[in-house]
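Marked as duplicate of an earlier ticket. Keeping the data here for the record.
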Amino acid sequence: MRPANIVTSVADVLAGIAIAGVFTQPGALSMQGYLPQILLLCFSTACLYGGGIVYNDVFDADLDKIERPERAIPSGIITVKQASTLGTVLLLAGIVSAFFCNSFSEIIAAAIAFFALLYNKSSKHHPFLGPLNMGFCRGLNLMLGISIIPSLLSTWYPLAIVPIIYIFCITMISRGEVHGGSKRNLYIGAGLYAIVAGTIIYFGSRNHTLLLTALFVIPFLYMIFTPLLKAIKEPIGRNIGGAVKAGVISLILMDAAWAATFSTISVALVIACLLPISMWLSRIFAVT
């Protein structure tokens, strides 16, 4: 289920909620305010991400016998049928919990589940559609957070392009994780990373929160570019895997930057505090 990654999905939703302005509304965190919806959406995204990852292993079971025999299914810890049941329960739980928030959240959650299954079943094998498909999942995840106030979806849906580009980049880079990759893809990834950071900085400037935004964008850039430059220098599987792992976990800092841009420094710091949790989990459980 990739627990370290699930933490990043919760950060996505919290960033979306911050963009919606919930955390700056008086009494927003009281039980009479938005706290139940916040908890429902965080639970929803955790289930959706976990279910999608479980199905990733279900569809890759035969390939993992060769490339990753230590994983749960090929090692015999769990059967394909048991994993499929778990994945289905998690995806349905994600959709149902979003339904209890509002109908727009339910639709977005169902779309995330659909694109996760589409990626795992077929599109992952396409060099362009696979990364794009995975990007859609993360873009919709940000929208899932914003959907806590449905009327704002029409205002902020263009922001979904940022996580789409970012995850497109990570997924593209990850194709060289097992057998090594090409420097061309890594250079393209570096360019896409720069576009993502530049977009966040633009909104920070527009919202007059540039300094606060930079507090999180700078460590975000350091965390993603340090292993990426190492992989560019020596594009072997181990280095590319490190770049992918850093890219996934660094999503938390990107989400914190969104919160600093649209909400308050305290909310951004709360999201950033998820980073050490994700990093700790990444030492115990696989990230990729």
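See parent ticket for discussion. The mean pLDDT is 93.
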